[in-house]
Amino acid sequence: MTAGPVEQAREQVQEQAREQARAGRLLAKWRRQRGFSQLELANLADVSARHIGFVETGRSQPSREMVLRLAGHLDVPARVRNSLLLAAGYAPVYPERPLDDPAMQPVLEAVRRVLRGHQPYPALVVDGRWDIVASNDAFGLFTEGVAAHLLEPPVNGLRLVLHPEGMAPRIANIGQWRDKLLARLACRAALDERLRPLYEELLGYPCARPEPEIGAPGPDDIMVPLQLRHGDVTLNFIATLATFGTAHDVTMSELVIESFFPADEHTAAYLSGS
After folding, report:
1. Which of 76, 108, 210, 256 is most deeply packed, by most CB within 10 A?
2. Residues 54 and 148 in one domain
């Protein structure tokens, strides 16, 4: 039996209310993730804590500007900001261009310059799924001995490191790196469902320490180095991450440049050929 106009209108109102509630739950999830109370977020956004509470419970419909303001104060990624806008009943505002789009060419050229300039040390660029977009010649040091199927595009950077046929057998401190990478991925997967299958896959890889652990650093620890075996030597690296801080495109905002530097003089001399 076909619903009448009154029933259809009621269903539309109920659906809109459900969407508003979903937008509020997403905002509340990000607020908690960032460690803000409702009052702290309200002060930042120059609204009342009561209004924040009404938005989070779906009792109040936030304006487009309010969604963007709250998302900005919570440093929500561009992809999620689009999802928040959709849930609140508004059109997305952040485009998502493919990497081969002409508008992305200046970005890719800037990335290539960074990678070339980092020689003779390894560097790579990954996207929001941790797929490798580009790398420099020195990155070949990391892929030596890796199974061919792991190097077929798209090459996933996390799979490359943790797979038993990837870099894992050559990483002397694979337990530490596994813990660090899985913890980072778990945080992202909790907020981005696209990454959940990857997390489950990597969690299932065999390792001497199968479950991620949270350990306190020692008195002399300032970082977790990457200890990579290369032939008869062990090279030590520290890693830095860089992003495009003013990106308004989803694809661009998710690009991460990971650069590896020598953690000791021995590694520096080995990589420079001296």
Report:
1. 76
2. no
Tokens representing residue 219 in the block: 């008195």
Q: Which of 61, 87, 113 is the last residue of a domain?
A: 87
What does the pLDDT average to over 249-271?
96
Q: 157, 253, 158: which is closest to 202 by C-alpha?
A: 158
- Overall number of domains in the chain: 2
Pairing of strands 226-230, 233-243: antiparallel
Whole domain around residue 136: which residue ranges?
102-272
> Is residue 93, in this structure, part of any structural domain at all?
no
Q: 15 pLDDT exceeds 70? A: no
pLDDT value at 214 more than 50? yes
- One domain, residues 64 and 162: no
Using the 3D structure, point to which of 64, 87, 110 is the last residue of a domain: 87
Tell me: the pLDDT tens digits for 129-166?
999 999 999 999 999 999 999 999 999 999 999 999 99
Q: The pTM is what?
A: 0.83
Chain mean position to CA 171? 23
